[in-house]
Design goal:
The protein has 15 helices and 2 strands. It has helices at 3-32, 36-40, 56-63, 70-100, 107-127, 132-151, 162-171, 177-193, 202-226, 230-238, 243-254, 256-272, 275-280, 288-293, 303-330, and strands at residues 105-106, 159-160. The longest helix is centred in the N-terminal third of the chain and has 31 residues, at 70-100.
């Protein structure tokens, strides 16, 4: 087979793969516009030919016939945008620090922090019967300064540097999500008991998703900041410009492509996340994935209504994917630094 034959074979395989990827989206789209009879009588594919399209499923969804649609949509939008903004902002600062400053974290100082925190919590909670949130705050107020002080000493043992810190950030996503989600549920439950509402609340969900997206932000933004010429920052420091102004007025604008790409990727993860929303919400702040999972009724699976919910859920992510793809094709993600 010559090179032309290989190209034709590759094109055929790509078209087959494209069909398998696009057909489920087309099926959801047409089903959302089908009347119930067109769904139950058999497979129909083409509107105006196989069936007469209708907006009845959309009207039923938005009018509240099948439950509250507007609430989960608003919850997903507010929580996703807020958590993404916080994760990118905090992750950008952490990534910049890992690129421009040298960290030396002694392993024994970390072990001292862990021992003080765990031992102190057990003592306060079980020995002195102090509530969990208060015990956590107290042990952190003691363990964190103690570890910082110990890290400045000439302790023996391994010393962790910038690459180790970066790996630690990324490793937070290696644990099974149920481990952190269940622990967070228990912590939020204890906070609810002392009057700080975190379960089924906007702050609780935003805090969880910010922590969920932060490792991705640090990992992705570190590569973008490494491409920022250090000579630009050195010239600014010669003019007596502080680090904070350099970061916000010089580094961030020059890294705008990376910020946009990172925000889109984290937004997609948070928008589609199911487990945290399932455990940490009950009614008021449920998100679209929870709405999708609950789309059934006593009359069985009404696929036209389920397709409407799926369509509302996937359209924003399709827009994000198209926009991100155009950025990649145009070379925008290559950076604006020359």
């Amino acid at each position: 087979m010559d090179s032309k034959g290989y190209r034709q074979l590759g094109l055929a395989l790509a078209l087959i793969w494209l069909f398998f990827c696009v057909f489920p989206l087309w099926w959801v789209l047409v089903t959302a516009f089908k009347p119930p009879l067109a769904v139950s009588q058999g497979a129909t594919y083409l509107p105006f030919i196989d069936f007469q399209p209708t907006l009845q499923a959309f009207r039923d969804a938005l009018s509240g016939v099948r439950g509250d649609f507007a609430g989960p949509i608003l919850s997903s939008v507010l929580v996703s945008i807020t958590a993404t903004a916080l994760a990118v902002f905090l992750g950008a600062m952490a990534a910049y620090a890992l690129v421009r400053f040298q960290f030396r974290i002694r392993l024994l100082a970390g072990a001292l922090f862990a021992a003080t925190a765990i031992g102190g919590f057990v003592l306060l909670n079980h020995g002195l019967a102090i509530r969990v949130p208060y015990a956590l705050v107290l042990v952190l107020l003691v363990a964190l300064p103690l570890a910082v002080w110990a890290n400045g000493l000439n302790l023996p043992g391994p010393v962790l540097k910038n690459n180790d810190v970066t790996f630690w950030f990324v490793s937070q996503r290696m644990f099974p999500p149920i481990v952190s989600a269940f622990a967070l549920f228990l912590l939020y439950s204890e906070m609810n008991k002392v009057g700080v509402r975190m379960l089924d609340s906007f702050p609780g969900l935003v805090l969880a998703y910010t922590a969920f997206g932060l490792p991705f932000a640090v990992w992705l933004m570190r590569d973008f900041f490494e491409n920022v010429p250090i000579e630009v920052e050195e010239a600014a420091m010669v003019d007596d410009i502080g680090r904070m102004r350099i970061f916000f007025q010089i580094v961030l604008p020059m890294s705008l492509p990376g910020l946009v790409a990172t925000a889109m990727i984290i937004l997609a993860f948070i928008w589609n996340e199911f487990l945290f929303a399932l455990l940490l919400t009950s009614s008021k702040w449920q998100t679209l994935p929870i709405l999708m999972a609950g789309q059934n009724s006593s009359r069985g699976d009404e696929w036209w209504a389920i397709s409407v919910a799926a369509l509302i859920s996937i359209v924003p992510m399709i827009v994000v994917a198209v926009f991100l793809g155009r950025m990649m094709r145009s070379g925008f993600l290559a950076g604006s630094i020359k």
